[in-house]
Design goal:
The protein has six helices and ten strands, in the order βαββββββαβαβαβαα. It starts with 5 loop residues before the first strand and ends with a helix.
């Protein structure tokens, strides 16, 4: 699936250093490293099978900042809570998971039919794109609602991956209010 330059056991200190900035766990996320392009790679699984990956450049000057390694149409999902938080990137999805919610990265700012289909599995969906995408946050919330999804728009002060205290506290408040934020998808299906 990945080119030979993407490895799981080399340069662990680079991957771990990257993760420390966002307070996420590289081993839990099964992160890889692209030694050729200096990228941390987030693997994407479907039913336990590796189907794609997204690489984030360590060097902020490297273009593109994000690189897709496969062609899967879906997003990057972390967590098993019945409340999903739609974000733009893998780091933000991983941060959302640390809050006990399910992070769903749409991997950019385009909401696709496959995203909408997947989001129908959640009890509640919070759309929390980066602040510079606030108009898309509103548009996607309306689109999700028109598809029968219980959706809510959250206006962030900063990108969720930076863990701004006000944003985190508001997400945690919504998790409690939506009554079920502690229930997992598996439990809600039983």
């Amino acid at each position: 699936m990945f080119p030979e330059s993407v490895v799981s056991d080399a340069n662990r200190h680079i991957v771990d250093g990257f993760c420390e900035r966002y307070n996420i766990d590289s081993l839990e996320l099964d992160l890889r490293y692209d030694i050729k392009e200096d990228r941390v790679v987030f693997p994407i699984y479907d039913n336990g099978r590796l189907v794609d990956g997204i690489g984030k450049a360590i060097n902020e000057n490297l273009v593109p900042k994000w690189k897709r390694y496969g062609t899967m149409a879906g997003g990057y999902v972390r967590g098993s809570c019945v409340v999903a938080v739609v974000v733009e990137d893998c780091i933000s999805a991983a941060v959302v998971e640390t809050l006990g919610l399910t992070g769903v990265a749409i991997l950019g700012t385009a909401l696709t039919e496959s995203h909408i289909f997947a989001l129908k599995n959640f009890k509640k969906v919070i759309v929390a794109l980066d602040p510079d995408a606030a108009p898309k946050t509103i548009a996607y919330t309306k689109e999700l609602k028109s598809n029968g999804i219980d959706a809510f728009a959250l206006k962030l002060i900063d990108d969720i991956k930076y863990r701004r205290e006000e944003d985190i506290q508001y997400l945690l408040k919504l998790k409690r209010e939506f009554n079920g934020g502690t229930q997992s998808i598996k439990e809600s299906a039983d």
